[in-house]
Amino acid sequence: MSDQRFDLMFTIICLCINLVAFCEHIRYIIMTSETRNYLGKLCDLLFKKIEEAAQVERQTDHLLESYETVQMTEAMQDNLLMQMISKSGTHMEYSLLSACVCLLLGCCIQENNQHRKLLYDILPDHSFKPLIEQLKKLRDFAHLTDIMTQKGKERVQKVLQLFESCNTTMNQSSLIDTSIIDDDDCIDSVPEIDDEDDNNMNGTD
């Protein structure tokens, strides 16, 4: 994925998160539109990015295995290092995009059991587990690298708790109504990543 394409997708998804988090009408349109099928397209994008990240992992493993029995020169080591750095960056891009789509979906289903059921019905195996895994990766990455503001981290944690609640309760008769948005949350808190730490991923303030 080119840097410009990633920056554009990342910025657009983060903008959508801001809009959806604070506008019930937009959430309703995304979750219920049958002609546009926004929900289906978001889920398709999510699992496409998850698969692309997994594919990069497999390629990386294969690359490392191919060098295990080779007597490497210094030039070969440098070449391998550059390839690993490139694949690591690509994997991070796919993982960040998938996590941001998870945040967007989490905002769409906040405080609405019907929307949660719609998402539950469209997920593979009716499980929120893939979404939970992506957000846990983002949470852990944010804590390790300090690329996200405190409010951004709190937003991720709230959506993560919502998905975990849904994963537990959707197979039961009741749902726990967990709100993502606090009254004092402001629109620039979803999610924020420091420019100097994110390799020029602009437009997320």
TrEMBL record:
Domain WAPL: 1-145
InterPro entries: ARM-like, WAPL, WAPL_dom
PROSITE patterns according to UniProt: WAPL
Full protein name: WAPL domain-containing protein
Protein's organism: Dermatophagoides farinae
